[in-house]
């Protein structure tokens, strides 16, 4: 009896190890997702929520400015709010999920602007080691009509996963891509209905999202990224080497800065409440753009000057905070099988009655022990 109990326990371990997310645009439990929170997963400064990936309901997520016509637009919905961030991985792929923004969906009605009103970006640093360096605005993602007014300080993203728009009924099929920093080479570029066994993504609107404490109406995005598309070998980073991430949403246009980003460190001890006045710097040594406070100024607006160096003293929003994830290398599938068979055999031998010349029973490949 002891033998059967222990062997079945190892079958359970193998099943858990092989669980991977289903890419269907609906983030759900039981799929191996690891949920990141501001505390303890934000770097370099811990703080903020222990239950959410970013502060929810910032004023900046409701506002953008049409600088051409000098008009401020206000959403009824917190359409540009990044709320939750998830990661999973297996030997072949990195899986990423974001919950919150509805701005990229092309079928949506809102007084501040209908349909697609923003692009979603996930900055990924695959370089490992200690976070360092910086990334100038002109070396960031630029394949959606030009760069956005965002740069990175004290860490150096190497790839950008980006959504130009999600097709939830507006037509066109959606578009997301993976672009390498600096070289701007594209390793994947496809819609949210494509199924080709490689890069894949889906998105949907969850109209009963309890985590959205503003109105319970949030977008959910899921991605499957083959390791090679972000410059890593099968199995992902070496043991102990971190991956770093930040998520943010901008308006659709070139040289617009973020509505919201996560994680981040805003004024005082409040994580990532951004919403700067047009042209205002995110100054004062803050680790994220400034808080709009009671001004209710646009969260995403046009920045004319992109020529300055990376820092908090210009109109380009600087993202310094990030999530840090250490993914131990995933064994090849065959390794799990060998581990299971070997350990099951050891356990079986341990609990067999001690009889002379009794052989260890052999079971067909894939069969359960009696």
Task: Break the fold down into its secondary structure elements and pairings.
Layout: H1 2-17, E1 34-36, H2 38-41, E2 42-43, E3 63-66, E4 71-74, E5 84-89, E6 93-100, E7 119-125, E8 134-135, E9 150-153, E10 159-165, E11 175-180, E12 186-190, E13 200-206, E14 218-226, E15 242-250, E16 258-262, E17 317-319, E18 322-326, H3 333-351
Parallel strand pairs: 9-17
Antiparallel strand pairs: 1-5, 2-18, 3-4, 5-6, 6-14, 7-10, 7-15, 8-9, 10-11, 11-12, 13-14, 15-16, 15-18
Helix pairs in contact: 1-3
Compact overview of the structure:
This protein has 370 residues and is α+β, with helices and mostly antiparallel strands. 11% of the residues lie in helices and 26% in strands.
Outline the structure in words.
The protein folds into two domains: 60 residues, no CATH class; 294 residues, no CATH class. It is 11% helix and 26% strand. The chain is built from three helices and 18 strands.
Helix content percent band:
10-25%
Number of DSSP-assigned strands: 18
Q: How many angstroms does the end-to-end distance come to?
A: 10 Å
Question: How many domains is the backbone divided into?
Answer: 2
User: Could you tell me the strand content as a percent range?
Assistant: 25-35%
Sheet with most strands: 8 strands, antiparallel
Which class do the helix and strand fractions yield?
Answer: alpha+beta
Unreliable stretches (pLDDT < 50, length at least 5) are 1-17, 266-276, 283-296, 331-370
Arithmetic mean pLDDT: 80
Question: Radius of gyration in whole Å, from Cα?
Answer: 23 Å
Order of helices and strands: HEHEEEEEEEEEEEEEEEEEH
The 3D shape can be described as globular
Number of helices: 3
